[in-house]
Structure formats: structure tokens, C-alpha cells
Design brief:
It is a single chain. The chain is built from 6 helices and 4 strands. By secondary structure, the protein is of the alpha/beta class. It has one domain: 3-Layer(aba) Sandwich (Rossmann fold). Strands 1-2-3-4 form a 4-stranded parallel beta sheet, sandwiched between helices. Strand 3, helix 5 and strand 4 form a beta-alpha-beta unit.
Length: 179
Amino acid sequence: MSWLAAHAAELGGDPARVAVAGDSAGGNLAAAVTLQARESGPPLAAQVLVYPNVAYGADTPSFRDNTDPHFFNRTSVSWYWGHYLADPADGTDPLASPLRATDLSGLPPALVITAEYDPLRDEAEQYAERLRAAGVPVELARYDGMTHGFFTMTGTLAAAREATARTAEYLRKVLLPTR
């Protein structure tokens, strides 16, 4: 992020309008980057977290209830964590599990998107609520009837097109507030 902020102008960007975004594991990385940027810079203007995986070892109702083997499920979540962490003990680090951070104040405004039938739904919504409680402006949008991964299915799902449009509008509002 420091390199991007330092070179934003030569890339045609504005270092004051840098946002991070990601879905699933990418949402985890985006949330971790906001924590890191708060401590060491550069400041970020926004974060978009699409069904982010933000809590290693989360045992939530959505994690327990989403067991259909045809979809992303709790077995999938455990498999991915097993490949992400060098040691399960690393899962307590807030940069691996942002929901475990003790202080979420001072983070950039957030759009958090969740899906009804997603094992990550509850932890993502808990993260959004913790951000809000810490004074971070948050928009939370749950897409009922959707599964993990729906956001990438714009050619097939109206909800994906709606979520994509909502994301674009959110970024427009946060990054270009005068337009």
C-alpha cells in the first residue's frame, strides 16, 4: 500500500482516494490491510468486504448450518484455513483473523456484503457490527437466497448484478463525494 500511495499520481490516481476490496479470502486480506494501514499508513479511503473470511475457528450458526457438499461449506472453510496458516496458532493474529482485533476504530468506511447461505455470513456480519460499534461508517447488505461466490456470477444472477452495482455506487459515493 505504501508503494501504491507513493506512486498514485504517476499512475493517474489520487493517494487520498485509495480503497481496498476483496471477496472471501480476498476480503480477509482487504480487512487485514486496513488494520495494517491504520498502524503504518497510508490512510485508506474505503474498504469493500464481500463475504470475507475474518475469523479462524469461528463457530457460528451459519458455519454449522451450511453443510451442503455441493456448495462452499464448513469443510471448505476449514480446508482453506489449513492452507492459509502455517500454524493454526497463527489464526489468533488479527492480521489473519481481523474479527479478533481488539480495536477496530480509525478504520476506513466499509461496505460488507454477505450471502444468506454462506458459512462465512455470521462472522462477516459480526465484523460489520464491530466496525460500526467502533465508530466506522458501515453499510451491510445481506443477499437472501444467495450462496458464497454469488458476487462473481453477474452473467447469471440478478443479485450479483445488484451487488456489483451497489459496490460501484458505494465506491463512487465514498471516493468521489462531490459528484
